[in-house]
Amino acid sequence: MNDVGKKPRCAVVFGSAGGIGGALCHALEADGGERIFAGSRIGDAAPGGRITPFHFDLGEETSINDAAELTRDHEPDLVIVATGVLTLEGGTGPERSY
Questions:
Q1: How far apart are CA 24 and CA 35, in angstroms?
Q2: Rounded CA gap, 44 and 17, in Å?
Q3: Residue 94: what are its φ and ψ, rounded to 5°?
Q4: DSSP class of residue 91?
Q5: Whose CA is closest to 7, among 34, 41, 38?
Q6: pLDDT band at residue 98 under the 50/70/90 scheme
Q7: Measured between alpha carbons, how far apart are the two ends of the chain, in Å?
């Protein structure tokens, strides 16, 4: 099946608190997306009419489980990972925390 060009009805965006992730959430909504799940460490990024924000932090196993539970009944057509993670001396970390 070829889905190129098909508009997603349901999408999950990780990293929605950032400029790119937030813009993607709003673009998906403007393009007719029925449901957009917006995951971020602050959990309240990019709220909107059909945007559902949720807390998501890769360092917290419970937030990963909660995200899976939240989207269980809504199979996404599109998953976007717009998180900023750098490899730092001694490990990894967020791109920038303000």
A1: 13
A2: 8
A3: -65, 150
A4: E
A5: 34
A6: very low
A7: 43
